[in-house]
Amino acid sequence: MEKGTLLKRYGGFYYVLSQNNEIYESTYRGRHRLTQEDIYPGDYVEFKINDEGKGIIEGVLPRKNLITKPSVANITQLVCVAAFKNPNPNLYLLDRLLAIGEMNRLKIIICFNKRDLVSHDQAERILEAYRGLGYGIIVTSAKQNIGIVELETELSNNISVLAGQSGVGKSSLLNGIQPGLNLKVADISEKLKSGRHTTRSVELIKLSKGGLVADTPGFSRLDISGISAEKIGFLFPEFLPHRENCRFSTCTHSSEPSCAVIDALNRGEINKDRYTSYLAILEEVKNEEGGY
Ligand SMILES: Nc1nc2c(ncn2[C@@H]2O[C@H](COP(=O)(O)OP(=O)(O)OP(=O)(O)O)[C@@H](O)[C@H]2O)c(=O)[nH]1
Ligand SMILES: [Zn+2]
């Protein structure tokens, strides 16, 4: 029996990447009927290869994680992409993605693209808030081919998702890494036609320097449900040294008295924008808990 990774489902077939780096068009012959929830791109499968060189999947192995909306299994790394300009960085969206990466215990990289559109000082002002959080930061310009090799290196040996606001340059970066991909770049009329919010199934792309990356339309928000309000603080690494000094162990660092996180904020040790994002995520999760 061979083991492999599902890259995509298409037209009733499953495309499986074997451990020998071959892609097999496969069908499923397991004992149970597969439903949509039973197998996602990124899933490890056991399969046989028949005389015609086609794969026959016999089972899906337990998955390590699953991110949803849209769904992909077993990712190891979340690359949160923002642009320095056009669009201006949406820090709430970026911080929300970082929190989702933390929630799923993924390796996290922040990629700031479109470096060509800002000066050194403008870039530094934006980067400042994100240094010292422990995340890898890559500065790129898909247009001027800056940082592309560095990004490619970070993607090898990982199953990665590039997530970020529409228009930040995710497709352009992947095209820069692998010119043969020809991912659609900024075809606005096409996007309107297909409808921005229709869920589209994910496809994992095999990179020539190694690694798999999800082809990403729709990966701007991801799902943050399923976490309780008092756990959100754990997703902000800069809160960790302070939170044990909060008076209440269940402190949500919002309106409680003697909150060490708020004290650190007031001393300027925690970035104000990051804290604002924290409060917004807290509200979002509380609203979900309330069921509306
Ligand atoms: N100046 C500049 N423009 C860039 C850069 N990278 C991408 N762009 C442009 O930004 C626009 C959006 O790029 P895309 O690659 O489609 O962005 P995306 O993040 O994939 O967008 P969605 O598919 O909507 O999620 C295009 O017009 C690109 O040519 C860059 O480094 N510098
Ligand atoms: Zn607190």
Describe what this molecule looks like in 3D.
The chain is an alpha/beta fold and 292 residues long. It has 3 domains: 59 residues, Nucleic acid-binding proteins (OB fold (Dihydrolipoamide Acetyltransferase, E2P)); 150 residues, Rossmann fold (3-Layer(aba) Sandwich), CATH 3.40.50.300; 61 residues, Ribonucleotide Reductase Protein R1, domain 1. The chain is 25% helix and 23% strand. It has 8 helices and 13 strands. The protein has a 6-stranded mixed beta sheet, sandwiched between helices. A 5-stranded mixed barrel has the order 1-2-3-5-4. It is globular. About 5% of the residues have low confidence. The site of zinc ion has 8 residues, from helix 7.
Number of strands: 13
Can you tell me the CATH topology of the largest domain?
Rossmann fold
CATH homologous superfamily assignment of the largest domain: P-loop containing nucleotide triphosphate hydrolases
Mean pLDDT: 89
Extract low-pLDDT stretches: 186-199
Termini Cα gap: 47 Å
CATH top level assignment of the largest domain: Alpha Beta
What order do the helices and strands follow? EEEEEEEEHEHEHEHHEEHHH
Give the strand line-up of the largest sheet. 10-9-8-11-13-12
Cα shape: globular
Query: What portion of the residues fall into strands of 2 or more residues?
Result: 15-25%
What radius of gyration results from the CA coordinates?
21 Å
- Give the biggest sheet: 6 strands, mixed
Number of domains: 3
Question: Bound compounds, please?
Answer: guanosine-5'-triphosphate, zinc ion
Per DSSP, the total helix count is 8
Named CATH architecture of the largest domain: 3-Layer(aba) Sandwich
